[in-house]
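INFO worker-7 received task bundle
INFO bundle size: 2
INFO processing item 0
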Amino acid sequence: MQRILVGGVAALLLVVSGLWFWQTQSNQPNLIPAAPPPEAISDALPQAGANAPAFGPAPPEAPKASREEMRFNRYDRNRDDLISRIEMMGSRTKAFKALDRDGNNLLTFEEWAAATGERFAGADRNKDQLLTRKEFAHTRPKQAEKPGFRC
């Protein structure tokens, strides 16, 4: 019986202390500022200060890859510096075999660059290490004529 009485007194003390704490907190001023009314909220962008510079420093430039490196990287899908036959696309297997000099089914950048250098040398008719517009036009592969449309 004594345990029940002690438990009841403890519960009553907890309730009284909770009520006392609640009353003391309600009498204190609110320290959290109220939200501004919706009319005061503006959708405008923030304005820079009077002394702010017009623009910041330019971002660092990435090193420029050569045109051949960009073409090579287009085929090198997994970026292991080797082009496999699967990466070269199924329709390009004949071109891949022509470029793969050592026949290991992997195309290195050196093999790629050598083939392109030979292509450049073949197009440079006057051997001045420069391609004119006329010489450059001969480097383009011949395209098959497209059939006309039938309605």
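INFO item 0 finished
INFO processing item 1
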Amino acid sequence: MSQRALILFAHGARAASWAAPFERLRDLAQAREPDVRVSLAFLELMSPRLPDHVAQLVADGVSDITLVPVFLGQGGHVLRDLPVIVDELRATYPDTTIKVVEAAGENAAVLNALCDYCVGALSSDASPH
């Protein structure tokens, strides 16, 4: 059992299909890091919710967690809600390291990849609709 975990943290939605791209992202990350436990957790509307998921990881012996908000921007959920949740988790699990990185959409490499995709649409002959 890996003592390290990577949690991809997303908002959540009522439609189960909304999670599909995040599940693919999780699977891609897991394939790149087979020795790390890669998983998804959600703020609301879907499960597992972040506090419940961290509780399970800690119970499974995970002691080092990296949390990646897979949000395009640092909106209210990332700026206000997430820090409160993480502070509570750190207080509850003081022997567990919980590192939070910037929202995915704030990262230069992610923005460049999205830009490549958007600009590439100009020359794309294929249309999904």
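INFO item 1 finished
INFO post-check item 1: The radius of gyration is 16 Å.
INFO post-check item 1: The chain has four helices and four strands.
INFO worker-7 idle
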